[in-house]
Design goal:
By secondary structure, the protein is of the alpha+beta class. It is built from 6 helices and 7 strands, in the order βααβββαααβββα. 19% of the residues are buried.
Length: 220
């Protein structure tokens, strides 16, 4: 579509500040390349065939193209900050914070958490950690922990706080396998209104020892 004539007044600001992994020895280079490839594909939505610099440049180009194709926002910013965090043995948790403003009532902050096996470079999914048949029990454990954190006795009391009014409890795909616990991160609007902000539910490995996959239970 045609751009507005006053396009000069439209401002955009895109920043990418992401850590990538690198290795001092050749043996680990393959693992690092695999992890970096996942980060490029899953977070920057680019081909893992691209180099890191090219992937970032292409991401910025894509965002600019989208901005210029959308005549709604006069001011736009998109800031990505990605950091690797060590967790349980042989795991890197990767946390991406995205701060986006597209001209709405307020900026939007999104957290994405990914997990990688430091021995193989593989992306770790929820199904890898919790067999599907145990996930209903995990959901119950998360709900119980949420109620405890909010100091309420019932679902009704949670609803009165605006929590889980619009959705049933679900397992967030944004989770970190930390050294001492598993952190499940819920972004703004996921389970509570914007005013309540993001929400984190942490469960200890002890709490889930009966339902976690045998591959993981002895890792801590």
């Amino acid at each position: 579509g045609q751009l507005h004539n006053d396009d000069e007044s439209r401002e955009m600001d895109v920043k990418v500040d992401m850590q990538f992994v690198k290795s001092e020895n050749v043996a680990n280079e393959t693992v690092c390349n695999l992890i970096n490839g996942h980060l490029i594909e899953l977070l920057l939505k680019q081909s893992s065939e691209l180099s890191i610099d090219d992937a970032i440049a292409q991401y910025i180009e894509d965002v600019k193209t989208e901005f210029h194709g959308d005549e709604v926002a006069n001011l736009y910013h998109d800031h990505l900050t990605g950091r690797a965090e060590y967790g349980m043995e042989n795991v890197i948790n990767y946390r991406l914070l995205e701060d986006i403003f597209t001209g709405g009532a307020h900026p939007c902050k999104l957290t994405t958490i990914l997990r990688f096996n430091t021995q193989t470079g593989e992306f770790i999914t929820l199904d890898d950690v919790f067999p599907t048949l145990n996930q209903t029990r995990l959901q119950d454990i998360l709900l119980a922990k949420l109620m405890k954190d909010q100091n309420v006795q019932s679902l009704d009391e949670l609803h009165q706080k605006g929590i889980l009014e619009m959705t049933d409890m679900f397992i967030s795909s944004n989770f970190a396998l930390r050294e001492d616990s598993i952190e499940f991160h819920y972004n703004e609007y996921d389970i509570a209104p914007y005013a309540s902000g993001a929400c984190t539910i942490c469960v200890s490995y002890e709490d889930v020892k009966d339902i976690i996959s045998t591959t993981w239970e002895n890792r801590k």
